[in-house]
Amino acid sequence: MELLLSELVSRNRHWTNFGNVATYIPELKNANKDALGIVVVDIEGNIYKAGDYETKFTIQSISKPITLMLALMDYGPDHVFEKVGMEPTGDPFNSMRKLETINPSRPLNPMINAGAIAVASIIRGKDNEEKMDRILQLFRKISKNPNLNINENVYLSEKKTGDRNRAMAYFLRDVGIIEGDVEAILDLYFKQCSIEVTCEDIAHIGMFLANHGVIKETGEQYVPKNITQIVKTFMVTCGMYDASGEFAIQVGVPAKSGVGGGIMCAVPNRMGIGVVGPALDKKGNSIAGVKVLESLSKELALSIF
Length: 305
Ligand code: GLN
Fold this sequence. Notes:
Elements: H1 2-12, E1 37-42, E2 47-51, E3 57-58, H2 64-75, H3 77-83, H4 97-101, H5 113-120, H6 128-143, E4 149-150, H7 152-161, H8 163-174, H9 182-193, E5 195-197, H10 199-210, E6 214-215, E7 220-221, H11 225-238, H12 244-250, E8 255-257, E9 262-267, E10 271-276, H13 287-300
Antiparallel strand pairs: 1-2, 1-10, 3-5, 4-5, 6-7, 8-9, 9-10
The site of glutamine has 11 residues, from loops.
């Protein structure tokens, strides 16, 4: 397997020449555009690594399915889906245009920024510190990495420049989707996006989802199966933003990308995959990362469809 992964990284490395690192969060400019790495964790617990798998990057939107799990555990689907819908938008991840035109006025799904901010607004905790602790605790458990933490520079950079998210959050309070201190909610959202990870961390999270919320070693059902099912369904329909349809055809597995360059996949009952390639296409997905996943999916017949 490791040989295959190395071969796929070499075969697709030239794609890192295309696209660009995200710059709208100034600190993300420092990412290495040439990096391409992959880690696969299979159901037996074997770990396979290739390319620049040691590259660190911030999790960004890959955090959205995980905070969604926490909100679903805290409140159950009925309450969560009053705040956020279940439909793909066909719009960019940071778009605000449908927020005002749909009825009822609420974000269409929890994988776009507006939806994830609505989810962040209902995470339980007496203050932001406790809420962030709960988020980190879940991330650390399912990534099997007790040292996960936020990248302070990326967090501060986004907090300073995140006016589009700020605008959407204030709008969401105006229409009654979120309540309370908007800046505190945004702060939590910016922090969840700034958690620093490697491919291995997100591959473990993918494997956890692929294993229906059960921690393999202990057999513990850490997140209810129906919740992981909801989350994986969103990953298929909305996980790659407005490229989710094409990705479903070309790769065919539940996946979530982030503007840090990462992509996390959960191949049900088989494996979790973490990929990094910070050069992004116009929709915010890693170009080389998607290409490696396309190759891997064909080699191992991973499509769930
Ligand atoms: N923190 C980023 C934002 O809010 C996450 C976006 C992403 O990864 N697509 O813009």
